[in-house]
């Protein structure tokens, strides 16, 4: 029998916790093992119930989500954390990722994305909702004359994240630069690169550039 993914919820609104609990309990291998209504108890609560995933709000009484993450970071605790917040400010997103958060969702998108986010993060990858990912990407592409702004195309082969990776590789961004710009780990970038090359049946960067040009991801 496959072990269940143990989830702890931290938000200052009981109604939201109850709603998420009801939603997550519909998934066979999910188990909500606890919840916290203020930031001061989150660290000890999570340790006590041995959670795999923490869903954490930024705006929490007594101790906000940033300070909670700082506590995990200081203790070198590698718990997988997904931020669920009303805020979509890039400074906040960048800060929580630096502190180890593996995912970021807006509360508006939670119903559509929370289940996929938990599964993705549990498997060791990062997850950002579409609106957050687009905001991140747009933040550094506006001043790049080589970039076609319409990168979010319907593509039967590559996912939206893979389209972003191909675009940046084609613009000669290094793996480290891509990881910094998209707020994902270098290991995740390399995994995407390998998957993309396999899907496109190419062995080098030239093949990726040709694909980007053919599909108007970059301007020649």
In short:
Helices cover about 50% and strands about 15% of the residues. The protein has ten helices and six strands.
Average pLDDT, rounded to a whole number, is 85
Q: Strand tally, please? A: 6
Reading the helices and strands in chain order gives EHEHEHEHEHEHHHHH
Classified by CATH, the class of the largest domain is Alpha Beta
Largest sheet: 6 strands, parallel
Broad shape: elongated
Question: Please, could you describe this protein's structure?
Answer:
It is a single chain. The protein folds into two domains: 5-129, Response regulator (Rossmann fold, 3-Layer(aba) Sandwich), CATH 3.40.50.2300; 144-214, Winged helix-like DNA-binding domain superfamily/Winged helix DNA-binding domain (Arc Repressor Mutant, subunit A), CATH 1.10.10.10. The protein starts with a strand and ends in a 6-residue tail after the last helix. It is of the alpha/beta class and 220 residues long. Helices cover 49% and strands 13% of the residues. Helix 1 (14-24) links the parallel strand 1 and strand 2. The mean pLDDT is 85. The protein is built from ten helices and six strands.
Helix and strand layout, with pairings?
Blueprint: E1 5-10, H1 14-24, E2 30-36, H2 42-49, E3 53-56, H3 65-74, E4 80-85, H4 90-98, E5 103-106, H5 110-122, E6 127-128, H6 130-141, H7 160-170, H8 175-182, H9 186-200, H10 205-214
